[in-house]
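Worked example 3 (structure in, sequence out).
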């Protein structure tokens, strides 16, 4: 995106992000989609400790290359699963997230979806994930402008991390 299309937006009172998407972009989760729940969820340290309040970490998480993730697991159903029949450990049969529905909480990585966070020259940049543009059914279906609701997408924990980049190669 060219420099003149980027804009700085203040979130959480005094923190700035550089937004690299159309300010008219809208997003709202769509019933039955669950595409974002078919992938492993990287847990930041604060998320890991918070998750311990809601679930057994040994049952719900796995470590890969020294990083903690919510497990993907085989589901005994045809709906709300990836092509390999797996989905997030917390994705219920009804297509809702157990953590969000029952505890009104979700990991930071889940909150940012469908956005992607990167760091350039010390600034947090926010764009839309390429895969989300291809698969997410919640883009452009409502009047809920993402730019007006950035605080809901960008948890404050991101500013406490050494590297809040959401795209990690593992």
């Amino acid at each position: 995106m060219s420099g003149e299309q980027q804009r700085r937006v203040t979130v959480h009172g005094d923190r700035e992000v550089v937004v690299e998407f159309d300010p008219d972009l809208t997003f709202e989760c769509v019933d039955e989609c669950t595409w974002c729940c078919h992938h492993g969820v990287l847990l930041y340290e604060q998320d890991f400790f918070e998750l311990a309040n809601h679930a057994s970490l040994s049952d719900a998480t796995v470590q890969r290359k020294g990083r903690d993730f919510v497990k993907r697991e085989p589901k005994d159903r045809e709906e709300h699963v990836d092509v390999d029949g797996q989905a997030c450990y917390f994705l219920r049969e009804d297509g809702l997230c157990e953590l969000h529905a029952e505890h009104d909480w979700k990991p930071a990585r889940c909150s940012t979806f469908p956005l992607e966070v990167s760091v350039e020259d010390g600034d947090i940049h926010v764009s839309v994930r390429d895969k989300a543009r291809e698969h997410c059914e919640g883009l452009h279906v409502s009047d809920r402008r993402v730019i007006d609701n950035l605080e809901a997408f960008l948890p404050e924990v991101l500013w406490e991390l050494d590297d809040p980049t959401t795209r990690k190669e593992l």
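Notes: The chain is about 20% helix and 20% strand. The chain has a mean pLDDT of 92.
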